[in-house]
Write a structure and sequence with these properties.
With about 70 residues, this protein is α+β, with helices and mostly antiparallel strands. Helix content is about 45%, strand content about 10%. The protein has a three-stranded antiparallel β-sheet with strand order 1-3-2. A hairpin with a 2-residue loop joins strand 2 and strand 3.
Amino acid sequence: MSTLLSREPLESVYAVAARVLRKRPSPQVIHRWRRKGLRGIKLPARSFGSVCRITESEFREWIDRVSEAAGDGL
C-alpha cells in the first residue's frame, strides 16, 4: 500500500475505478466497498470532505487482493 509520501496523485475513487474497470461504479457501490469491503477486503480510500480519494496503484493493489481472496481474476 502507498504511503502518504507517495508522489502518485490522489484522485477521485470514481475516476480511478472508471479508468481501471472500464466502467464507473455507482456511489452506493463505492460506499459499500469502503464500509463492508468486497470479499472481506475494504477499499483503502481516504475522505476529504465529501470526496473519496485513492491512488491508482492502491486501487489496483486492492483489486489484486480481492482477486486472490476469491481465487480468480476480476
